[in-house]
Design a protein that fits this description.
The chain contains 18 helices and six strands. By secondary structure, the protein is mainly alpha-helical. The chain has two domains: about 70 residues, Rubrerythrin, domain 2, CATH 2.20.28; about 325 residues, Orthogonal Bundle (Citrate Synthase, domain 1), CATH 1.10.580. The protein binds acetyl coenzyme *A (ACO). Acetyl coenzyme *A (ACO) binds next to loops.
C-alpha cells in the first residue's frame, strides 16, 4: 500500500496498551487511520459488520464519491458532465486508462472493441442450449463469462500490462452474451454485438434486430450505461477486487462480480423496483399503506437507501429527468412514473425515511426507463452489469498494479468450544 502519512496520529487505548496509529492523507472527505498493526500489537481485531468504516484496498484513484454532498466523479470528472457529454466508451476509456481519450485514442479503442473476436459459433449454441429456458439472465451471464475464459486459452494467461485484448473481449462479448440469451429464449438463436454505430445503439439492435427505435432510446441507454460505469467499492466491485487479489483472472473476477450484482440489495434492485411499483398499481394498495408495511419491518422499499448517499444520488436525479421524454417516445402511459413520484415524495416527507437518510437510489428510476424501451424486466440487471463492466476492469487493473495484498478479513469466532468427537452410532 502507498498511503501518504499526515503529521497527526490517532491514539488507541486497549486496557493498559497504548497504540499510536498513523493518520493517512486523502484528497476526499475522509482521512484514514492505519490500523494494520492493531492485531499484532494489541491482540484485538477491529469489528465492523458490512465494512462501512474500513478501507481495505490501497488508496484508489478511480472514483470519488461524497455521499453527504451527492458528488460522484470518475477520475475527477463530475458524473453530470460525463452523462451529458461523453459516450459510454469514452467513459470506459477514462475509467480504465485514467484520462479522457483524444479523437485518435477513442477511435483506436472503439475499433479494437468492434474488431475483437466474437462469440465462438458452435460452442455458443451448445453452451446456451445447456441452460433451461427459465434461467435467469444474471445466472446465465455469470456462467457465460467464466465459460468465455475457457474459449480464450491464450488470453487467460495475460498479465495486467498485456490485458488489453481481454478488456476488448469483455467489452464486445458481455453485451453479446446478454443479448444472445434474450435472442435464444425468444427466437432460438444467438446474436453478435456490433458497437460500430454506438454502444447502446448496437445493444438495442442486438436485442431487437427488427425494430426501429427512436434515437432517444439509444441516447438514454448510453446515459444509463455511463451513470452505472463505476461506483468505487460497492459490493460487486469489492467482490471483483477480492477475487483479483488472489491473482485470479479478469474473467473469473468479473464473473464473481456479476454474481454479487444480481442480489436484490445491489443491482437486482432495479428489477425489484418495477415489480414493487406494478404490484402497488395492481393491488390498489395506497402509497401510505406501502410505507406503513415497510415501516413495520415486513419489507424494504426497493430502490431506496444507500450505504454512502445520505442526501441525494446524482445518478437517480439524472435518470429521473429522462423518464418523461422516454415514456412519451415509447407512447407509454405514465402510470408507473406517477406512482414512483408519489412514492418518492412520500419518502422525502416521512419521518422514518428522513431520520435514516433514505432516498431514491440509481435503481429507482432506471427500471422505468428500461421498461419503456421494451427491455424485459429480467434483463434490467444485466444492463447494469454491462454498464458496470469498465469499473470492474479499472478496479481489477488497479488492484494488480498496486500489488494488492490478498483480501483475507479476520474472523471473530463465537461457536462451540472444543468438544470430544461423537461416533455416528452414539449420536442421539
Ligand atoms: N426501506 C426501508 N428501510 C430501509 C431501507 C429501505 N429500502 N434501507 C434501509 N432501511 C433502514 C433499515 O431497516 C435500518 O433501519 P433500523 O436502523 O431501524 O434498523 C436503517 O435503514 C439502516 O439500514 P442498513 O441496512 O443498515 O443500511 P445499509 O447501508 O446496510 O444498506 C442498502 C444499504 C442495502 C442499499 C439498503 O438501503 C437497502 O436494502 N435498500 C433497498 C435495496 C436497494 O435499493 N438496493 C440498491 C442499492 S444501490 C446499488 O446497489 C446500485
Amino acid at each position: 500500500m502507498s498511503f501518504q502519512r499526515n503529521p497527526e496520529t490517532a491514539l488507541l487505548l486497549v486496557g493498559a496498551e497504548r497504540l499510536e496509529l498513523p493518520i493517512v492523507a486523502s484528497n476526499g472527505r475522509y482521512q484514514g487511520i492505519d490500523v494494520s498493526k492493531v492485531r499484532e500489537a494489541t491482540g484485538h481485531v477491529l469489528v465492523d459488520p458490512g465494512a462501512g468504516n474500513v478501507s481495505i484496498c490501497a488508496p484508489s484513484e478511480i472514483t470519488y464519491l461524497d455521499g453527504q454532498e451527492g458528488i460522484l466523479q470518475y477520475r475527477g470528472y463530475r458524473i453530470e458532465e460525463l452523462a451529458n457529454h461523453s459516450t459510454f466508451l469514452e467513459t470506459a476509456y477514462l475509467l480504465i486508462y485514467g484520462e479522457l481519450p483524444t479523437h485518435a485514442e477513442l477511435q483506436r479503442f472503439e475499433t479494437a472493441i468492434a474488431a475483437a473476436p466474437g462469440l465462438p459459433a458452435l460452442a455458443t449454441d451448445s453452451f446456451l442450449r445447456s441452460f433451461g429456458a427459465a434461467g435467469h439472465p444474471m445466472a446465465v451471464l455469470q456462467s457465460a463469462i467464466a465459460w468465455l475464459e475457457t474459449q480464450r486459452p491464450v488470453l487467460r494467461q495475460a498479465e495486467s500490462l498485456e490485458m488489453e485484448p481481454v478488456f476488448f473481449d469483455l467489452l464486445r462479448n458481455v453485451p453479446a452474451l446478454v443479448a444472445s440469451w434474450y435472442a435464444f429464449r425468444t427466437r432460438g438463436e444467438w446474436v453478435e454485438f456490433d458497437p460500430t454505430d454506438g454502444y447502446a445503439k448496437g445493444l438495442l439492435q442486438a436485442f431487437f434486430p427488427d425494430a426501429s427505435h427512436p434515437q432517444i432510446f439509444a441516447d438514454v441507454l448510453e446515459t444509463c450505461l455511463v451513470v452505472h460505469a463505476d461506483h468505487e467499492q460497492n459490493c460487486s466491485t469489492n467482490t471483483c477486487r477480492s477475487i483479483g487479489s488472489a491473482q485470479a483472472s479478469l474473467y473469473a473476477s468479473v464473473a464473481g462480480a456479476v454474481g454479487a450484482l444480481s442480489g436484490p440489495l445491489h443491482g437486482g434492485a432495479n428489477e425489484a423496483v418495477v415489480a414493487m411499483l406494478e404490484d402497488l398499481l395492481a393491488s390498489g394498495m395506497t402509497v401510505a399503506d406501502k410505507l406503513a408495511e415497510v415501516k413495520s419491518g415486513e419489507a424494504r422499499l426497493s430502490g431506496v437507501g444507500h450505504r454512502v448517499y445520505k442526501n441525494s444520488d446524482p445518478r437517480a436525479e439524472r435518470l429521473k429527468q429522462l423518464c418523461p421524454e422516454v415514456l412519451r417516445a415509447a407512447g407509454n402511459d405514465s402510470q408507473l412514473l406517477d406512482i414512483a413520484h408519489q412514492l418518492e415524495n412520500a419518502v422525502r416527507e416521512d419521518e422514518y425515511f428522513r431520520r435514516r437518510k433514505l432516498y431514491p437510489n440509481v435503481d429507482f428510476y432506471s427500471g422505468i426507463l428500461y421498461k419503456a424501451m421494451g427491455i424485459p424486466v429480467e434483463f434490467f440487471t444485466p444492463m447494469f452489469a454491462i454498464g458496470r463492466l469498465p469499473g470492474w476492469i479499472a478496479h481489477w487493473v488497479e488492484g494488480r498494479e498496486k500489488k494488492t495484498r490478498i483480501y483475507r478479513p479476520f474472523q471473530i469466532y463465537d461457536g462451540q468450544s472444543e468438544r470430544p468427537y461423537v461416533p455416528i452410532d452414539a449420536r442421539t
